[in-house]
Specification:
The complex is a heterodimer of chains A (328) and B (500).
Chain A (H helix, E strand, L loop, with lengths): L17 H7 L6 H6 L44 H24 L7 H11 L3 H18 L3 H28 L5 H12 L1 H13 L5 H30 L5 H29 L1 H29 L4 H15 L5
Chain B lengths: L7 H8 L12 H4 L24 H24 L12 H28 L3 H31 L6 H5 L6 H12 L2 H16 L4 H10 L3 H31 L3 H19 L1 H10 L7 H20 L10 H7 L3 H11 L13 H10 L4 H17 L23 E2 L2 E5 L2 E5 L2 E5 L2 H9 L1 H4 L5 H6 L8 H8 L15 H10 L3
Antiparallel strand pairs in B: 1-2, 3-4
Helix pairs in contact in B: 3-10, 4-5, 4-7, 4-8, 5-10, 7-8, 8-10, 8-11, 9-10, 12-15, 16-17
The chains are: A mainly alpha (328), B mainly alpha (500).
């Protein structure tokens, strides 16, 4: 038996906003739809930006990619702000309990000096890579067009700041909050041969002007290769060499990467399917940045792992490219 | 060995400030290209004092808790048809102004702070701007969600995004933020981060949210409470920005002063619409516009400028004119909307006798003398079935884009007109403040997309104004606008409440 509370029913005059109705028909809309579609101003801007007078304030011409409708980039996760922060808060809660467990049990003891040095040399410098990813995603968010993609870029940018901070915390756990491990890792980043290719490439991304090209470079190519090398292959190596507890501290990054990859792959699929011109453009960008990224990462991959590691990472990326409809 | 305890400042430095590095391979100037052209001198970004030291994990946690509570209220509000609990259906028109005129500004704020959050060379300032960017996105989205339910039961919300880009009076807030975003990154921070967020937000955001509280609108007021801690962070950022710029180099002082003069004037013009909302549109009043101005600008702002005097910063130019305007602008604005009520996206009405008495009491120097007689006349005309709508389109000020509705403040019977000639063309202004702003950057303000000019140039459809309103603005004449009395909103309300 069920009980039924009687409420006053009022017939609504309309189901949703007019621009949502024009897109999806006259029916109740989701929160993602109302928070996303056609929210960004499109026309009749008053002044050209002093800092870029050849463009309007919101202008689809800031990338060479052409879309009939920029709202085609629907986020498969349907993240609007509220959904985004609540999802990340759940991940954060798990991470917090992992970090306190690690610290409370002083699991650092079990790592041994060599393994700790290994982590400082290969894992901690990535906080600077994440910082670059923060800049590049903010760039896309501010230069991009249409709320569907610019909000997802903003979430990605903030995620990367969070990941840079988690990596820094790992350093602080290792050095007992002295900051020495972070200093050492930064010295590797600044001076050590194995990191210079990556640092140069990171610097190069921040002077790249086309925001969609930058999305390809950062979120598809570089992230694809780095996350496979570090949070997949290096994680396995750590587990096989007595460093499995480190995985507790990088679980957030692994989960995040899974989640973010879903969005990046969906973006690529839509962009490729739009036109032959887009496909050619994307293939050019991927080819160019992949060559640079492989050259930059190879010395690191070889020293951190072995001679095959880079090929494995490239194979994993290529599989995703094919699935997105590129190079076929 | 026990790990040493880090204080919050050191921890934040290690977790955040230390992430950036000196470039060796690319030109850092090319990565952060917009820092020089405004003439601002930054000698050392490391002197930036973080206004708040929030790491992302904490941010996600706090904000998610707030969102969970907020959306629970939204759900309950919709489930219980709580729009029926508002004081009077006239109140909902204040929300229409908010969604069409203010929420899109939150979006522009997101875009502006995302831009500075990428472009500033100092990591501390960048990250603070990024957090404000994502907060602002939160605000626009939660406002849309808060008003989504009202949209289902009242007219005038449904085309807010389309209208914001086109409608004559909405070009006032739109151009305000366009101006700030089109400026360099430092001017944007003084315009929005400091002038708007730190000083004027109490006169924009707070009146709407207090209005919601006083008029039984649980959804909007809950949003307001939920956004309060975000706003507090934004205010500390605004204050840090101005102190940082003034401390970096003495040459920055006159530039910052010029921006303060500009943005306080522009801000006070933008607030005209809030003044009429407070004095005329809230069935249950919070306080008069004049009182709000005295508390939030004259007292709070005055104290702030006293504090900034040690850097050589003076009160904004025309503060004396603004002081006189508090007696007039709400009345001048509501009269303009009342007489153009067929071209607005919301309903207008004659204040009730009780409300007229309240206005007389709150504005003893001006209301009975200048404004009450107009309403008495409007009442007579309405009684005779001759509710007045003007046929004319108003002339707009080239700078603030408000119709020329303001008077000389020393002679409230005389409309104020100013003009400037630039490249052989004459441009018109509502005030010395707006004229000064134009004269300082004419090449920027000649670009203004003035809605009335655009209509006359045939860029908004036509041929009649009625066609522009329906086809170009997407307004449903008589449903979305004109008088509240007899409108579909009014009729539905009576039906819901079971009164004839």
């Amino acid at each position: 038996m069920s009980i039924e509370i009687k409420t006053a029913t009022l017939e609504p005059v309309r189901n949703t906003f007019a621009h949502i109705e024009r897109r999806f028909g006259d029916k109740p809309a989701t929160r993602y739809q109302e928070a996303t579609y056609d929210v960004q101003s499109e026309k009749y801007f008053h002044y050209r930006p002093l800092w870029q007078p050849e463009m309007e304030l919101n202008d689809p011409r800031r990338t060479a990619l052409v879309m009939e409708d920029w709202y085609a980039f629907k986020d498969p996760r349907q993240f609007y702000y509220g959904a985004y922060v609540q999802q990340r808060a759940k991940m954060q809660e798990v991470a917090e309990s992992n970090y306190s467990f690690f610290e409370k049990r002083d699991l650092k003891r079990l790592l041994g000096d060599d393994l700790q040095k290994n982590v400082i040399r290969y894992l901690i410098p990535l906080r600077h890579f994440e910082h670059t990813a923060n800049l590049n995603n903010m760039y896309g968010s501010s230069q991009g067009y249409g709320t569907a993609i610019t909000q997802a870029l903003l979430y990605d940018g903030m995620d990367r700041l969070g990941i840079a901070q988690y990596l820094s915390r790992i350093g602080l756990i290792l050095d007992g909050n002295s900051g020495d491990a972070l200093g050492e890792a930064k010295a590797y980043w600044m001076n050590d041969e194995i990191w210079q290719g990556m640092r140069a490439l990171c610097e190069e991304t921040t002077v790249t002007k086309d925001w969609f090209e930058l999305l390809v470079a950062q979120d598809l190519v570089l992230d694809g290769l780095v996350y496979d090398l570090v949070f997949n292959q290096y994680d396995t190596w750590l587990a096989d060499n007595g460093g499995q507890d480190i995985s507790m501290l990088t679980e957030f990054m692994q989960l995040w990467n899974k989640d973010n990859t879903r969005w990046v792959d969906a973006v690529m699929k839509v962009a490729v399917a739009e036109s032959a011109e887009n496909k050619a453009l994307l293939e050019g960008w991927v080819t160019n940045w992949k060559a640079k990224a492989v050259a930059a990462l190879t010395p690191l991959a070889e020293e951190m792992l072995d001679a095959e590691a880079m090929d494995k990472a490239v194979a994993a990326l290529d599989k995703r490219l094919t699935k997105a409809g590129l190079f076929k | 060995m026990a790990a040493k305890k880090l204080n919050i400042k050191d921890k934040y430095r290690l977790l955040t400030r230390d992430l950036d590095w000196e470039y060796s391979y690319s030109d850092r100037k090319e990565a952060f290209p917009y820092e020089d052209f405004e003439g601002i001198k930054i000698t050392d970004w490391s002197k930036w004092e973080d206004p708040f030291r929030l790491t992302m994990d904490t941010y996600w946690k706090y904000q998610a808790e707030k969102e969970k509570k907020l959306y629970a209220i939204f759900d309950a509000f919709a489930q219980n048809n709580a729009h029926m609990n508002v004081s009077d259906p006239r109140y909902v028109n204040a929300l229409k102004i908010f969604l069409t005129g203010v929420s899109p500004l939150e979006y522009q704020a997101y875009q502006g702070f995302a831009h500075t959050g990428r472009q500033f060379g100092g990591v501390g300032a960048r990250v603070a701007c990024q957090m404000q960017a994502i907060d602002e996105l939160r605000h626009v989205q939660t406002q849309i969600h808060a008003m989504s339910h009202f949209n289902k039961f009242f007219d005038g919300f449904q085309e807010y995004s389309h209208m914001h880009d086109r409608v004559w009076y909405l070009s006032v807030p739109k151009s305000f933020f366009n101006d700030a975003r089109a400026a360099g990154p430092f001017e944007f921070m003084i315009a929005i981060g400091f002038s708007f967020e730190y000083v004027l937000t109490n006169l924009l955001f707070v009146p709407f949210m207090s209005g919601a509280a006083h008029n039984g609108d649980m959804a909007t007021v809950t949003f307001g409470f939920s956004a309060q801690s975000d706003e507090a962070r934004h205010m500390t950022l605004g204050l840090e920005v101005i102190k940082f710029l003034l401390e970096q180099h003495e040459d920055n002082v006159p530039i910052v002063q010029k921006w303060i003069d500009k943005w306080f004037w522009r801000g006070s013009r933008l607030l005209t619409i809030v003044s009429m909302m407070m004095d005329y549109m809230l069935p249950n009043k919070v306080m008069s516009w004049k009182e709000a101005w005295e508390v939030y600008f004259e007292e709070a702002g005055g104290a702030l400028f006293k504090d900034l005097a040690r850097y050589g910063i003076k009160m904004p130019k025309y503060a004396d004119v603004i002081e006189k305007e508090k007696e007039h602008i709400s009345h001048q604005a509501w009269w303009t909307f009342y007489t153009h009520g067929h071209a607005a996206g919301f309903h207008t009405w004659i204040p009730t006798d009780e409300e007229l008495d309240w206005l007389s009491e709150k504005y003893p120097e001006t209301f009975d003398k200048y404004y009450r007689p107009r309403w008495e006349l409007a009442k007579e005309m309405e009684a005779k079935g001759e509710r007045f709508y003007t046929k004319a389109l108003p002339q707009l000020c080239t700078t603030c884009q408000i119709p020329m509705l303001f008077t000389e403040m020393d002679d409230p019977t005389q409309t104020a007109y100013r003009d400037s000639v630039y490249n052989g063309e004459r441009y018109h202004f509502c005030s010395d403040g707006c004229k000064d702003i134009f004269d300082d950057e004419p090449e920027k303000f000649v670009q203004s997309w003035l809605p009335v000019h655009q209509i006359f140039q045939g860029n908004c459809g036509g041929p009649d104004v009625g066609d522009v309103l329906s086809d170009f603005y997407h307004m449903n004449l008589g449903a979305d606008n004109m008088d509240m009395k007899g409108s579909p909103d009014d009729l539905r309300w009576k039906q819901w409440k079971g009164v004839a």
